Amino acid sequence: MRDVSIIGIGQTKVGEHWDVSLRHLALEAILGALQDAGVDQVDMLLAGNMLSGELSGQEHLGALIADFAGLRGVEAFKVEAACGSGAAAVRMGYIAVAGGMVDVALVVGVEKMTDRKGSTTTAALAMAADADYEAMHGLSFVSINALLMRRYMYEFNVSHDAFAPFTINAHRNAVNNPYAMFPFPVSREKFENAKMIADPINLLDSSPICDGAAAIVLCPTDMVKGLRPARPVRVLASAVATDTVALHDRRDLLTLEGAALSARRAYQQAEVRPADVDLFEVHDAFSIMSVLSLEACGFAERGQGVRLGLDGEIGINGKLPICTMGGLKARGHPVGATGVYQMVEAVQQLRGKAGANQVANARLAMTQNIGGSGATVITHLLEAI
Amino acid sequence: MRDVSIIGIGQTKVGEHWDVSLRHLALEAILGALQDAGVDQVDMLLAGNMLSGELSGQEHLGALIADFAGLRGVEAFKVEAACGSGAAAVRMGYIAVAGGMVDVALVVGVEKMTDRKGSTTTAALAMAADADYEAMHGLSFVSINALLMRRYMYEFNVSHDAFAPFTINAHRNAVNNPYAMFPFPVSREKFENAKMIADPINLLDSSPICDGAAAIVLCPTDMVKGLRPARPVRVLASAVATDTVALHDRRDLLTLEGAALSARRAYQQAEVRPADVDLFEVHDAFSIMSVLSLEACGFAERGQGVRLGLDGEIGINGKLPICTMGGLKARGHPVGATGVYQMVEAVQQLRGKAGANQVANARLAMTQNIGGSGATVITHLLEAI
Question: How many CB atoms neighbour CB A246 within 10 A?
Fold first, then answer.
């Protein structure tokens, strides 16, 4: 197996891009990544996307985007794992490069969610859950997470406002991210008074419906010198685990076994411990998901994840900075693109190019992209070279 | 890179399975493949599927099927490339095993198309085409192929009945395939009088809307002895190429450049020529697609593909047997499963287990799965061990 590095990154601003098509969004991120990497040809294109069929009437994104990006002929596929589609595509690109099947892989995550009515998009997102046993009973994806949050609050005697620091942190960090959808701060008061969406999840517990695209270029680390990209970053670990899609099949609702297994595999590959991680791009689709992910990955004991927020450890200068560019909550969560945005932001940090949000001496970054409520979990560990 | 073999195959009968869910279809094929391979654990599951979101309200098939098949925890994704999704998933599994990232990969192609109205499914299939520039003008996927067939007939002065041998051959072969949807013969007269669908494509030029699943198990060839499967088959080549999705962007409507490039790459990998191929599982979604594929892959000159049928060379005892178990036309075309069915059938031939349809002395089989009207083309060459 070959050592793999990320040699280029690109991203669009996350938002409601009503005047830009799906393929144009992907193109903008791709051109940025190719330019950053200093390459104009690749051996493979992988597109991470969940909802192009349901919301844009378009499947077959691999060939479509390859052609539109001037890469006609290149091997290209779409990879899907619900909200984990972006990192799933990264994982497939990593496998191809690490295994020696291709040299240069381009991965783009793209999602266009705002062209349709909110109810249509909400119904589409429920396809991340179990259609036959969850969605058919009327459960939306938000309400599934609400069940988890309610159970967590009950089981560990935690109040809703204990989750506030996660939202406040994400919005604070988004202020300095020009690509973020919500670059404004949120106060504790605003969090507590936000409109209820699915009790106990309110508007500010939730990541937004939005459009966006992000891209990275992967190549073997020993080819980096020949290609002369700006600042490569090594992929130290790439690991995936799955769990049941339906909540009712889980052994324990409040333990994300897929996240625990995925993180454990990543730590083993990289030979590191949680304490070695300098920053963590968490899958904060809902604030409860941040907490469960932090616990599963060994950053907090079961039922203690909220303490990381309450104790001020998740800020840029904290013990474990998370969502350093705004996270899913405030940068935005264009679902199939999110996993790639996380990698792009981790690279910015490891390059020392995160501006006002720079984590001091960042050497080891972790990203975790989650499909469904913990059913597909893709964890990457990245290291500054 | 490691040499890779197929050590297990499984499939469901293709048909209208109104009483069986998507996951149950996948399970049946998976259990067959695992039993055939003699393994009960795998390192990775890849699901090839195009339409589960649009027609079953279910994405996230990787984790869903993994759990349902008793493989909870395993790395799992869905891979999509329109009607080429099945072989795209095989390709991804091949990359993972050949590159040394996993040892045992399970690939399942599954599609459930008959639970919805025909018009809904027809609209969904148009997502294989360009949504913004083709489908939005009202072109269905059948009518796109009709444009190709009309142009071919005009350009090369070929009559419609010249295509009859492809349909007759597929149906003749399906008679002996217990998994085929249409196991009955079709006469030339029946072909010529079939109901028109999209002029000049009639009902018997077209593969059916149907349900089905097929699965294969891949592992490194040097592990085969330890696992003791029945009769392994080597993957001699695995190659992919793309072309424009929209017809109007092609340099030449009647040359499938993606198929030509994909086949050329496969021949180079395996160091063989078209004349070495003992049988070819062609992507006969429409009879025109068979002809264009045969020409692109070097089995006939441009404009001469129909001759292979007219001269009787495509039958089981012909120079180049194609669609030996019925092809997409008569075995059926559950789109995301088709590429895996092709591999399963090629393995049956190379094992000498194709019954009445056995191609004598079959040593080298070729499969080609096509997404869209030639936009994603995945070619595999398989060899008997």
Answer: 21
Are the beta carbons of B88 and A77 separated by less than 8 Å?
yes
Rounded CA gap, A340 and A85, in Å?
Answer: 9
| CA-CA-CA-CA torsion sign (B31, B33, B36, B37) | negative
Active-site residue, B24 included:
no
Residues 6+ apart with CB under 8 A from A229: A7, A8, A36, A37, A38, A39, A217
For chain A, residues with pLDDT lower than 50 are none
Q: How far is A282 from chain B (nearest CA, A)?
A: 20
Is B75 close to A242, i.e. CB distance below 8 A?
yes
How close B193 gets to chain A, by Cα (Å)? Answer: 34
The interface predicted TM-score of the complex, written ipTM, equals 0.98
When the pLDDT of each residue in chain A is averaged and rounded to a whole number, the result is: 97
φ, ψ at A11 (rounded to 5°)? -160, 155
- Confidence (pLDDT) at B235: 98
Q: What does the pLDDT look like over B349-370, one tens digit per residue?
A: 999 999 999 999 999 999 999 9
Nearest chain B residue (CA) to A88: B77
* Helix axes of B141-155 and B118-125: crossing angle, nearest 10 degrees: 60
* Contact (CB, 8 A) for B147 and B247: yes
- What is the phi-psi region of residue B73: left when phi exceeds 0, alpha when psi lies from -120 to 50, beta otherwise? left
Chain A residues in contact with B107 by the CB 8 A cut-off are: none
pTM: 0.98
Is A333 annotated as catalytic? Answer: yes
Which residues in chain B are closer than 8 Å to A56, comparing Cβ atoms? 131
Rounded to whole angstroms, the Cα distance separating B26 from B338 reads 13
Q: What pLDDT does residue B229 have?
A: 67
CB contact under 8 A, B371 and A60: yes
Rounded distance, CA A259 to CA B189, Å?
60
Q: Is the pLDDT of residue B227 over 80?
A: no
